Every structure is written in structure tokens, then in C-alpha cells.
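so my prof wants the structure for this chain in the C-alpha cells format not the other one, which i didnt know existed until like an hour ago. anyway here's the sequence
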Amino acid sequence: MEFHKFLTVHDIDTADRQRIELRVPAGMCGKDTIFASSMRRVAKRMGLLALLLGWMTAGRTQTFGLEKQTDSLYFLTLSTDSMLHRWSLPHPVYRFCTGDVDGDGRVDALVGVVNQTRFYRQRGRRLFIFKNYKGRVRPLWLGSKLGGILQDFRFVAGRVRSLETTRDGLYVVAEYRWQGFGLGFVRFLVVKVGREEALRVFESEDE
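here's what i got, hopefully its the right format
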């Protein structure tokens, strides 16, 4: 796929600092002066158009990927039309998917890792969410826990759908969505059922 590079806000600011101007030579008057004034208006409009196009395409020419080095070392990659950035994940990874988690119009990366956290010292399955910040991978949410014991997750219709277990060995399927500073509970799809029924609901495309 071919991507076209548009002038960005940074480019326009740079041009503005350099003060690239259209100058009217001495003695120019009449139609020549009108022409120079028109050229300045055209240049200004082109700059505004480039700014608009850059804003409209921001975050669209990006691709998150996952590179495996060993069973316990992965790299989350972010490719844009101008650079490639990598984020080290020194943990086993059990799930990777993408979607616009926070609703800002940009694709985010959802990575399931197996590790221990500050508040949960026992190793378990966690959900980490990363975003594109100026072409670089940055954490959006590094979750220690959802509701139950996390087994798996998917991104369905703008929500995180989780497969969880309870302490008595039964299964729960729940949905969460972004609420400003993290994931907030939305609803249960099934509660305390067997594995087969839970997987059927978890893998369903129904919203």
C-alpha cells in the first residue's frame, strides 16, 4: 500500500520560523502588486489545507506488530510512514490484537503478558494497552487485574471482552470499556458457567 506524506504541524511551524515570504520587488505596482498579493493568499490557503490533511490522516498510516525473540522476550513494534519504533516486552505473550480502545480515532495495541505486578506477586495473565504517541509506542494502561482471574481477552465492537475464571473453577465472560483512566466494567455476558459454554460466548461476534 502506498502512503502519501502530507505537511504536518511540525513542518508548518518550521517553515514559519524560517519566515519564507513572498516579496514584491521595488517598482512593482498595479497588476503586479495584485498578483503578488494573490500568491500570498494562495500560499496561506495551501498551508491551511496541508494542516487539515495532516490532522485528518494523523494516526491512520500506522501498524502495530509483535516480534518474538524468545519465549520470554517480545518487541511491540509501531510502523508509521516515517519511522519504526520498538517497545521491549520481557514477558511471555499469550494474546495480541489491536483496536481503538480509548475512542480517539487511532488504533491501539492490546497485549496479553504473563507476569507478576506490584500488587499481585503471583504470576498471572495481564492485559497491557499501548498507544501511538507521536510515532512512538507508549503505555496507555498496564492492568494488574480485571474482575476475576484473567484467562483471555478479545476486542469486540469497541469493548474489551474477557474470559475469566472464579476461585471455584467456573467461568465468566465480561465486557469492559475505556473510562478515562482505565477499563471500567460494562456487563456480564455469562456468569459461573462451564468452560465450553464460556468459550462459545467469548468467541461469538455478537455485540
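also thought this was worth mentioning. The chain is about 20% helix and 45% strand.
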